[in-house]
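Handoff note, outgoing to incoming analyst
You'll be picking up this chain. Sequence as last confirmed:
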Amino acid sequence: MIIYLTENRVEPFKAMAEKQRLANLSLHERVLEQQRCTNCHDIEQDKVAPSFTMIANRYASKERAVLIESIQKGTKGKWEGKKLPMPAYHKMTQKDVEGMVDWILSLKK
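Most recent structure output, in case you need it:
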């Protein structure tokens, strides 16, 4: 017996496969992709926003709360030569925001 899957029946399988793919990523890889962070940021190189390494080198671990607030509320004017504001990511979960901040701070050189 041959079963033909119509587009409507394939979509749930695609969604399940994507959910599984994202679940297999580390927290920071998943957030970078889902929130499209790399459109503006790079790990090592400056783009329209400072690199994550540059952010890590500017902030000490004790300033973790400042970075959490920057992601949740957005920022503007913190970086010389960077004119675009960072939008607020208030819909990100607290776990994702804190995980990203911890990952960024781990890049400190």
